[in-house]
Structures are given as structure tokens and as C-alpha cells.
Amino acid sequence: MLDDVFPVPTRALIRQGGRACFFRLVNTSPLLIQVQSGTKIVMADDKALRLEAGAYGLLPDYRPLTMENIPKAPQKYQTLALPVPRQLFEEAYSRMGSIAVPSRPVPAGTSKLPEEAAALFDYCCQPGNLTRLPGAIAKARLMELITWFALCGAVLGQNQSPRIEDRLRQMIESDTAFAWTLRQAARSFNMSEATLRRKLAAENTGFSEILSDTRMNRALGLIQTTTLPMAQIAFEVGYDSPSQFAARFKERFGVNPRHVRGGSERFERIGAEVEHSGADALVR
């Protein structure tokens, strides 16, 4: 542990065999990333950020993003991602003093990281490196890395007012295989079912929508970062039937889950919802 509050981050190596564009992806933690092969395009507020192989970036938490990952043959698309608790960003920025923090969290790319900063990113991403350090030292290393990213132009925007949706996503993400119900969620939040339903409606969403979306986001992550069989991934996100899972995944993302991993299926547009979100500008 970094301390009693922050767990040691674990990096994820994201691999994708087929080109695909995913809309409304939500990270529950800010991500420091490096695109290692292929191209990543991230869109928020109708503005696209393009990251080529070797580029670094920062993806905000709890902000629906549209992402297109494009492999460059013969290699698969590959990105290294390090989740870092938001509190460490805020503490690092307060110590910098002069840093200008954007009013809204948006994706940001960096100018080329200095060699020392790139080496620190690699160090923090190597399994076991941070866990072997005393918590205070591991925390200092991560804050130094955040500072390097900020000095190179990638600054995490201000935290927005916490939403019930965000709290609910966190709860479901802790165990996506669990048979979550509205009653259980309301009890966890110390409110009635009617109150929770009303609060979610005020955020233009609902319990079933968030449950399904959190599970599909988790499924996509497992497909991209593990070699688990599809049947196991289906089970991990609460589906007993692999075929039902595959159908729901394609309904949500517009591609078959096996295409994401292997790239054997023709690239597909995601459809009207993507076009409505402005992400049609991503696909050329």
C-alpha cells in the first residue's frame, strides 16, 4: 500500500488486433498512458487527440470518452496504461503552485517526455517495482511522474461535483460478476430505492443502464489486457451464456469481442450513436 488510502497502481498492457472505435468509455481512475504501437484517437467535447506510437497522454476519470484504436500491420495496437489516484494529481499540483489546472477534465497529450521522465514511467509500470518500495517513496515517485507530465503539457482537469452514477460505477466495478440490484445499491448509499432512482434520473441515467455499461467496460478491458477465454470473461462480468454476452457486447460496441482481440472481423462503424456524439470525425 502507498498508505492507508491509496493502493499501489498496477499497470495494464492494452492490446488490440482489430481496428475499432468505442464510444462512451468511462475510466474510474485517471490514466497515464504511452502508445507503443499503432495509433490512438481520443475524443471529448468534439475535440480529437491523436497519439501515435511513442506518444504519452493523460486520460481523465469519470469522463465519457470516444476512443479509436488503430493497429499498424503487422503489429497489434498496444498501449501501456498506469492508473493513478486522482488525489495524487491534486497533491502534486498544489506543490507545484504555478500549474494552471483546466476547469474541466479532458484528454491531454504531452510534448516528448525527457529521457529521465520516460525512464520513470517505465519504472513505475514494471510489475513489482512500486510494491517493493516504502509507501512514502512509491507515492513520491508517482507524484514526480505526474509533475513531469504536467510540465510537458498533460494536466488533469478539476474534479467535477461527484455524481451518484460515479459512485455506482465504482461499486459495481469492485465485483462485476455479482448480481447487483437497485435495492442493494440503495442500501449501500443509505437511501431508499425511490430516492436512488430519482437521483439517477436527475443525471439522465438509470440503475440497469449503469450496471450493463460498467460490465461492458470491464469486459472490454479484460479482452484487451488478458488472454482469458471469452467464456470466462462473460462469467467475470455476470453472464452465464457466452453467446448472450457476445450479443450484448456487439450491441454496446458495434464489434464482435473476438474482433477486438484478434482482428479477424472487418472493421465496423458503431452507428448512429457515434455519429451523434461527433465521433464520426475519427473514422476516415
Describe the structure.
- This protein has 284 residues and is of the alpha+beta class.
- The chain folds into 2 domains: 12-152, Regulatory protein AraC (Jelly Rolls), CATH 2.60.120.280; 164-267, Arc Repressor Mutant, subunit A (Orthogonal Bundle), CATH 1.10.10.60.
- It is built from 11 helices and 9 strands.
- It has helices at residues 86-96, 115-125, 135-151, 164-173, 182-188, 193-202, 207-225, 230-236, 242-253, 257-262, 272-277, and strands at residues 12-16, 20-25, 31-37, 39-44, 47-52, 56-59, 65-70, 77-83, 108-109.
- The chain has a 5-stranded antiparallel β-sheet. It has a 4-stranded antiparallel β-sheet with strand order 2-7-4-5.
- Strand 4 (39-44) and strand 5 form a beta hairpin.
- Helix 2 (115-125) crosses helix 3 and helix 4 packs across helix 7.
- The protein is globular and about 50 Å long.
- The relative contact order is 0.17.
Along the chain, the helix and strand elements come as EEEEEEEEHEHHHHHHHHHH
Indicate the mean pLDDT: 89
Q: Strand order, biggest sheet?
A: 1-8-3-6-9
CATH class division of the largest domain: Mainly Beta
Overall structural class, as computed from helix and strand content, comes to: alpha+beta
Kindly state the number of beta strands. Answer: 9
Q: Tell me the number of helical segments per DSSP (H or I, 4 or more residues long).
A: 11
Q: Radius of gyration over alpha carbons?
A: 19 Å
Task: Indicate the percent of residues in helices.
Answer: 40-55%
Distance between the termini: 44 Å
Q: Which range does the strand content fall in? A: 15-25%
Give the overall shape.
globular
CATH architecture group name of the largest domain: Sandwich
Q: What are the low-pLDDT stretches, counting only 5+ consecutive residues below 50?
A: 265-284
Oligomer: single chain
Number of domains: 2
> CATH homologous superfamily of the largest domain, by name?
Regulatory protein AraC
Protein name: AraC family transcriptional regulator
InterPro entries: Homeodomain-like_sf (IPR009057), HTH_AraC (IPR018060), HTH_AraC-typ_CS (IPR018062), Tscrpt_reg_AraC-type_HTH (IPR020449)
GO molecular function, one term: DNA-binding transcription factor activity
Pfam families: HTH_18 (PF12833)
